[in-house]
Amino acid sequence: MEEEGPKYVLKMVALGDGAVGKTSCIMRYTEDSFGEKYKATIGTNIALKNIDVEVRKGEVVKAQIVLWDLAGQPTYKDLRSRYMVGSSIAFLVYDVTRPSTFLNVAEWYRNFTTVCPHAVIILVANKVDRDDQAVPREAGEMVSRWLDIEWIETSAKTGANVEKMFTKSVLMTIHKEDERLARKF
Ligand code: G3D
Ligand code: MG
Question: For the structural domain made of 8-184, what CATH number should be given?
Answer without folding.
Answer: 3.40.50.300
